């Protein structure tokens, strides 16, 4: 009897808002999902565990606001033998971006800004931007010319990655990275978000605003705008307006000391992944532990000065599923409304249209909304998807998707850096094939 009480006390002390895995089959049946089909996640992930491609994973599937599948696989720390559990904390990197979109749109609904506003209206340092034009002559010599931006960067440009504030290929004529030379780094723990914006504004853009999708630092700039529009530090606004309201108890910009034993260890492939037929990298060779010390393994263990809206959050599968279920519910979860349904529709509308895709762009058959990739339907994408379904992932192999029409949510958490698109595809594919009823 004492052992039984201890289990209950531990369960409620941690405030774990999960169903026991043994009970998920009943939930799956009520949510119109076939539990045996959902169990197809197990051989996929267990196979990757056997081949040492991943250390562990947590998968959570929900439909109609109910958790239909929740299962942990493998280890959160291989060397310590620590098992993966539903409350394991993960570095979610770019899955921070959709959280930022929701935060921004809560302020949009209050009339604090318009999506077509020039960001220089709020950040004057972006008033006179230049674009780096690289040319290579017949002899192979590269030169860089700075030309004026033909139009201002807008808030919409930041949120759909058409600002020109690129992540990649920011090279000058010598081949050196001019962003790095300018001190641009979202892992600099000594720099404030305001200082980061000033450094970014001093850098040339990689392309003219509004002309190409180019995955970017734009969402970090959006974080500073949220501070200006709200009058609060970014972490405080996210906590008060999203995390506390949705019951996301383990989501934030760092892991406090009392929760560090729940942070998953970060791994990386020892052999780089080979690209598939579309040039997309698959799973790499056997994983090895990322070294400790300064770097990604020990990031997120103390509060940073720079609150990165582009990739600075940690979270759990359950926390992020609550966020995703809010979006699937048209902006509300369990009686708490963050956004209007019309605003959620805008978030996952294809706002890219005919604008060309550049580095980091959405897959074929997908458009792009406010920080999320948006399916154009199964015929266009050649995937098991619904038109309007949206998704995104993180650098260390975390993924989520939301299908508003099916009221379906999927979250898969791992910690392998860099990520492979394979797991995001499998999350949607295996989840969607399990739909057997309304």
Radius of gyration: 22 Å
Number of discrete helical segments: 14
State the name of the first-level CATH class of the largest domain.
Answer: Alpha Beta
The CATH architecture of the largest domain would be 3-Layer(aba) Sandwich
* Average pLDDT taken over every residue: 90
Give the assembly state of these chains: single chain
Biggest β-sheet strands, sense, barrel: 8 strands, antiparallel
Strand content: 15-25%
CATH topology of the largest domain: Beta-lactamase
Give structural notes:
The protein folds into two domains: 20-105 and 234-432, 3-Layer(aba) Sandwich (Beta-lactamase), CATH 3.40.710.10; 115-218, no CATH class. Helices cover 29% and strands 17% of the residues. It has 14 helices and 16 strands. A hairpin with a 4-residue loop joins strand 2 (66-77) and strand 3 (82-83). The longest helix has 13 residues, at 96-108. Mean pLDDT is 90; it is low at 1-23.
